[in-house]
């Protein structure tokens, strides 16, 4: 007699309706299916039709239901009634909140718009928020990139017209050797995991370069536990070996890069180090066929890498000559760098040999005909199947810009950018520097700013300086201190505003920026700056407005809170004007929409921040937000998405526009039904590229024409990859005393040393301010796959994965200090100290310690219990980091940033360790701040449906 089995329904219905939208639990922007039961969110899964994740969804995405129902959600506009930082507020109506904001902001706009500093954190609508700030007229706007990965993005734009992640990705289907540099698990995690899976299926090799072997590096075939801050030196040693062996793609370099462009080599010339140009301003090369000068883009020209030109007593040589002279120097040999990098010379040689063998011994050949920008037709697409990916680990150093440049140069020397098997751009990239705006900062009371805030300077003439030479921006972006700060310096805003340097501000306006905790260096100091008062007892920073969806640490320091919705309750636009979700073979954009309405029973409720800005812009009579009769132009953000045109025919969304014959994609008139069409299409729209246009995009005539039809360019804009970045040389020339605009004397030496037009490596700047013997250990943070910035560690599901964080120590230091897992260590930097629990990790660079970032929380924040593990066993390394470097006796305090871009140098941190007694909880301890929302119940429980 058989065993009786119960009759179980193994797949019960979880919903009575499914609505498709876009995830917001990290920056991947995956497609999700939100299951509703009786109008409430019951379950979230991946959308299999979506181009980003194809149905894959990580723990963060699945836990979105807990983010939507989080007890930390704000419920109404709030006005501070207690001291700043106390968390004491009273609820007010939306009309009162908006009127208060107008009362504060209108006088600023009418008299001195720069007195408003408007900075946003990890939002995904920066084309909109920057548009609002530009219409207000303040120069003081930027987003979070300056303390994230601006080095990577900016180095990529100046070198090749794009960089990793949102700009491009590996050719997953053809790559045979993949190298990751400094990549944690939070950025682009689903696509990378899917890509790594495809590589493993095909037997492709993965090399992980990271001091820490976690996540992606844990599954790498070869892990390189490099010393932090030396990636650039390691990369240049690889370049040295490739040049020495002759394993570079000379044809690619001659055709598609500025390696053959002629450079003025006369030290006495005012144009020393600049390109030889014709009367149209086009860089000159020598044509191999004629031996004569020619513009780089002349039809049928074949640039010569070896020629030289002498005219009027001045010798001009190709960039390739300068590269060979520099990188064949013995100081870049594996033996010269192995001790500093922590990588044996033999291993460096082996990796270089592997790169060469795969790139040149096993190329990818596609039989696809294509025509280049010089009019030459090619019968095949030949590629080098080596690809790279890098992020914050190489970017967040004070030498990060040049390190990122070196990595881009390595790809280009191999001929593995925009070729089969290599790195591929995602539309609307590639975009050369010339296709981007320059920064604007001229203010006039009652008027918009004279152009976009952020951009890419081509030389000193584009710096954001006032007539007296002082910074025009509160963060000192685009100044001699950090000329190419394309994303601003958010980490310097509060410090500069508190110091009144370069001037005082009246209102600090923050959106999703947790500057009182994990999004700032010098965390205790920033909290003190936010609460500091002057001799009259007034706050030094007079007013602070915050918008957030949750009761974060920063919310407690605001004077006025404009509560945001959760991502399932509002419209958002993932735009080709901003941060799209494209793939190399197709452009794409997407929306979020209110799959459920905002619901805060018994309270005034919450509103999407972008819609609030539409309302606030109209009340302030900002020209971009009012009609000719003075009435409100956009009822809400959905109205803006539908009707706004950045220029005729181009709006936030490229799909379902109106053309002469009906619906069209790319350029077209606004369509009243556009959002409904996106919703019916699953929340996204893709625009595919023809196979003959899929590779060689910067030089492919078919791609350039398609890009014009989509509105990415006004006309075809083919360009050369810039191995030698001329704008950097222009700043060097100024530092050498040439040109009309001159830097301060104290900055000349640093600019000459760091702003080299060819990639270089120099030690992190903190090495010149701190004693490496006193502080011998590098201290890093990484973001875990299950968390993203602050958001995840208030999430009831995700807290079970990472509810606390130890400091991971390598074997050497565990043994030296006689430590066991769970013991406590005091971690000391030149700025401060923390006392935290530790754990052993063998797969770690021997002079590096690390922890997960953003796990530690301040007591009282995020509706967590004051004794929650995040507040007692969790911690931040931020307490050890200052926004300024230690004094070194020259009377100056230098920013703890990259001197070229202003990127926050989070990963330059050096420490020493001491064994400690158990203090009971992680130190430092801050008193529990008050919160405008009550603490969460011990158990979260609710019922969806019957």
N-to-C span: 38 Å
Number of helices: 23
**What characterizes the major β-sheet?**
7 strands, mixed
Kindly state the percentage of residues in helix: 10-25%
Q: Which structural category do the helix and sheet elements fall into? A: alpha/beta
Proportion in β-strands? 15-25%
- Extract low-pLDDT stretches: none
Q: Could you report the average pLDDT, rounded to the nearest whole number?
A: 95
Assembly of the depicted chains: single chain
- CATH class label of the domain at 168-425: Alpha Beta
User: Any idea what the CATH architecture of the domain at 168-425 is?
Assistant: 3-Layer(aba) Sandwich
Shape: globular
Give the strand order of the largest sheet, numbering strands 1, 2, ... along the chain.
Answer: 5-4-25-24-23-6-7
Determine the CATH topology of the domain at 168-425.
Dimethylsulfoxide Reductase, domain 2
In total, how many beta strands?
36
Question: CATH superfamily membership of the domain at 168-425, which one?
Answer: Dimethylsulfoxide Reductase, domain 2
* Gyration radius over CA: 27 Å
Summarize the structure.
The strands form eleven sheets. A seven-stranded mixed sheet has the order 5-4-25-24-23-6-7, covered by helices on one side. Strands 32-34-33-36-31-35 form a six-stranded mixed sheet. A four-stranded parallel sheet has the order 11-10-9-21, sandwiched between helices. It is α/β, with parallel strands linked by helices.
Tell me what you see in this structure.
By secondary structure, the chain is α/β, with parallel strands linked by helices. Among the domains are: 168-425, Dimethylsulfoxide Reductase, domain 2, CATH 3.40.228; 765-916, Barwin-like endoglucanases (Beta Barrel). It contains 23 helices and 36 strands. It has a 7-stranded mixed sheet with strand order 5-4-25-24-23-6-7, with helices on one face. Strands 32-34-33-36-31-35 form a 6-stranded mixed sheet. Strands 11-10-9-21 form a 4-stranded parallel sheet, with helices on both faces. A hairpin with an 8-residue loop joins β4 and β5. α4 (126-136) packs parallel to α16 (609-619) and α5 crosses α13. The two termini are 38 Å apart. The mean pLDDT is 95. Its main location: other.
């Amino acid at each position: 007699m058989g065993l009786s089995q119960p009759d179980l329904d193994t797949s019960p219905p979880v919903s009575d309706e499914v609505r498709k939208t876009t995830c917001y639990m990290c920056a991947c922007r995956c497609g999700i299916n939100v299951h509703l039961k009786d109008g409430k969110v019951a379950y979230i899964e991946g959308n299999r039709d979506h181009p980003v994740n194809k149905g894959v969804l990580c723990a963060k995405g699945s836990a979105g239901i807990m983010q939507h129902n989080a007890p930390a959600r704000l419920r109404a506009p709030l006005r501070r009634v207690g001291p700043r930082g106390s968390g004491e507020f009273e609820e007010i109506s939306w009309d009162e909140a908006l009127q208060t904001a107008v009362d504060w902001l209108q006088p600023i706009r009418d008299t001195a718009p720069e007195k408003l500093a408007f900075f946003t954190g990890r939002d995904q609508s920066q084309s909109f928020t920057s548009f609002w700030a530009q219409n207000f007229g303040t120069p003081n706007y930027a987003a979070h990139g300056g303390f994230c990965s601006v080095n990577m993005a900016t180095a990529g734009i100046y070198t090749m017209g794009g960089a990793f992640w949102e700009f491009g990705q590996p050719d997953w289907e053809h790559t045979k050797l993949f190298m990751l540099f400094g990549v944690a698990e939070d950025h682009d995690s689903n696509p990378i995991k899917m890509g790594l899976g495809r590589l493993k299926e095909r037997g492709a090799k993965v090399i992980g370069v990271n001091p820490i072997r976690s996540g992606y590096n844990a599954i790498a075939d070869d892990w390189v536990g490099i010393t932090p801050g030396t990636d650039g030196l390691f990369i240049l040693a690889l370049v040295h070996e490739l040049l020495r062996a002759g394993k570079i793609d000379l044809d690619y370099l001659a055709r598609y890069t500025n390696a053959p462009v002629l450079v003025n080599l006369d030290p006495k010339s005012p144009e020393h180090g600049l390109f030889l140009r014709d009367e149209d301003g086009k860089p000159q090369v020598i044509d191999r066929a004629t031996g004569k000068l020619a513009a780089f883009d002349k039809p049928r020209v074949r640039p010569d890498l070896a020629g030289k030109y002498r005219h009027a007593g001045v010798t001009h040589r190709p960039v390739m000559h300068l590269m060979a002279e520099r990188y064949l120097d013995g100081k870049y040999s594996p033996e010269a760098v192995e001790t500093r990098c922590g990588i044996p010379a033999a291993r460096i040689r082996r990796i270089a040999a592997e790169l060469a063998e795969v790139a040149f011994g096993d190329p990818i050949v596609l039989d696809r005909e294509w025509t280049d920008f010089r009019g030459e037709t090619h019968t095949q697409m030949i590629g080098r199947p080596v690809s790279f990916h890098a992020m914050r680990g190489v970017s967040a150093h004070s030498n990060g810009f040049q390190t990122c440049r070196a990595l881009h140069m390595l790809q280009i020397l191999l001929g593995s950018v925009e070729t089969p098997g290599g790195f591929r751009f995602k539309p609307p990239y590639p975009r050369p520097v010339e296709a981007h705006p320059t920064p604007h900062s001229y203010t006039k009371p009652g008027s918009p700013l004279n152009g976009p805030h952020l951009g890419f300077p081509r030389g000193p003439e584009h710096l954001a300086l006032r007539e007296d030479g002082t910074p025009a921006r509160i963060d000192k972006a685009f100044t001699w201190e950090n000329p190419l700060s394309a994303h601003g310096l958010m980490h310097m805003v509060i410090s500069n505003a508190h110091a009144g340097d370069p001037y005082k501000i009246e209102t600090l306006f923050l959106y999703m920026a947790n500057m009182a905790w994990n999004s700032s260096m010098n965390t205790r100091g920033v909290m003190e700056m936010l609460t500091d008062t002057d001799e009259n007892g007034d706050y030094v920073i007079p007013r602070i407005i915050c918008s957030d969806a949750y009761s974060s640490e920063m919310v407690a320091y605001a004077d006025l809170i404009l509560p945001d919705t959760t991502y399932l309750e509002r419209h958002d636009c993932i735009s080709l004007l901003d941060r799209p979700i494209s793939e190399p073979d197709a452009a794409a954009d997407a929306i979020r929409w209110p799959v459920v309405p905002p619901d805060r029973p018994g309270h005034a409720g919450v509103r999407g921040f972008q819609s609030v800005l539409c309302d606030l812009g109209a009340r302030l009579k900002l020209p971009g937000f009012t009609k000719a009769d003075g009435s409100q132009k956009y009822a809400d953000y959905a109205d803006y998405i539908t009707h706004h045109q950045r220029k005729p025919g181009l709006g936030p969304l490229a799909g379902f526009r109106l053309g002469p014959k009906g619906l069209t994609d790319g350029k077209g008139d606004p369509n009243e039904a556009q959002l409904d069409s996106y919703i019916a299409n699953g929340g996204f729209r893709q625009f595919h590229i023809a196979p003959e246009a899929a590779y060689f995009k910067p030089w492919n005539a078919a791609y350039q024409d398609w890009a014009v039809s989509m509105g990415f360019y006004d006309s075809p804009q083919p360009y050369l990859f810039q191995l030698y970045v001329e704008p950097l040389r222009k700043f060097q020339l100024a530092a050498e005393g040439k040109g009309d605009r001159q830097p301060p004397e104290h900055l000349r030496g640093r600019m000459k040393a760091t702003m080299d037009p060819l990639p270089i490596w120099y030690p992190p700047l903190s090495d010149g301010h701190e004693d490496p013997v006193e502080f011998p250990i590098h201290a890093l943070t990484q973001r875990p796959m299950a968390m993203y910035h602050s958001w995840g560690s208030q999430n009831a599901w995700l807290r079970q994965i990472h509810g606390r964080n130890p400091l991971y120590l390598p074997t050497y230091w565990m043994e030296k200090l006689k430590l066991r897992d769970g013991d406590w260590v005091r971690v000391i930097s030149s700025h401060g100290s923390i006392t935290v629990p530790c754990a052993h990790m063998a797969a770690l660079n021997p002079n590096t310690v690390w922890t997960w970032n953003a796990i530690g929380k301040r007591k009282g924040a995020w509706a967590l219990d004051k004794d929650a593990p995040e507040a007692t066993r969790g911690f931040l390394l931020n307490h050890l980091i200052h926004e300024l470097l230690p004094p070194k006796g020259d009377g100056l305090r230098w920013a703890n940033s990259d001197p070229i871009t202003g990127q926050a140098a989070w990963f330059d941190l050096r420490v020493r360790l001491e064994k400690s007694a158990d203090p009971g909880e992680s130190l430092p301890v801050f008193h529990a701040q008050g919160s405008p929302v009550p603490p969460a119940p011990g158990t979260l429980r609710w019922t969806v449906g019957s």
